[in-house]
Design goal:
Blueprint: H1 5-30, E1 32-33, E2 39-40, H2 45-58, H3 77-89, H4 93-122, H5 128-144, H6 146-153, H7 158-178, H8 181-197, H9 202-219, H10 226-246
Antiparallel strand pairs: 1-2
Amino acid sequence: MNNKKPADYLILAGIAIGFIIWAALFIYRSSFIAIDGQRYFSLFDDAMISMRYAWNLSHGIGLVWNPGEWVEGYTNLLMVLLMSLVTLIFDNKSIAVLAIQISGILFMLANAYLTMRIAEQISLGESQQHRLLLKLITFFCTLSYYPLVYWSLMGMETGLLTFLLLLGILFVLRNTREHNQNLLFLMPIILGLAYLTRPDSLIPAVIILTYFYYSESRQKSIHFSHAFILGIVSLYLMFPLGPILTR
C-alpha cells in the first residue's frame, strides 16, 4: 500500500490544481472592464452588502451601512469580520473583493479535504482499496458541487459555514473512537462560530450535538455525565447569546 501513496497524492494534487485553474477562470470571467478602462472584481449582491459593512468597520466608521445609522443589515457576522480584516489589509476595493474570492477557493479546498477525512472515518473497517476510492470520490465530488462552489467564489458565507460544520462533524466522529477531551471542547466552539456565520446553522448544530450525546451515552464514555453535557451545550449557547447581549 505504501507504494501507492505517492500516486494517491498525485491524483489529489491533480484534482486540486484542476479546480484552482477552473476557479481562477471563473473569477476572471465574473470580472469586468469599466468605462475607466480598469478591471473590477465583484461579488454576489448580498456579499457586496457585507463588504460595505466590513469596509466601514475596518475604516473606523463602525459596523454600519451608512455613518451614524446603526442598522444591522447582515446575518453573517463572522463573514463580515473576516471581510473587515481583508479590507483592512487591502485598501483597494476591487483587490479586496478579489481576495475574498480567492479565500473562497481556499475554503473549497479545505471543505474537500474535510469531506475526505469524514469519508475516511465512516469507512473504517472497509478494505484499503475501497477506503481510498471513497476518499478520492468525495474529494472530487466536493469540488464538483457547483452550488457550493458558486456561492463560495461569489463571496457568500457558504464556504466558511460548510467548513465549520464539516469540522464539527469530523470532531464528533473522531471523538467516538478516540475520546479526546480537546475535541470535546473544540466542537461547541466550532459550532458556535458556525452560528455566528449563519444563525440557521443552529439546526445542523442540534443534530450534531444530539448525535454526540447519543454516542457518548451509548458507549458510556468516562467523559459522559449530564453535568458535562450541560457544559458543552452551555459553551455553545454563549455564541448565540453574545451578539444579543452586545446589541
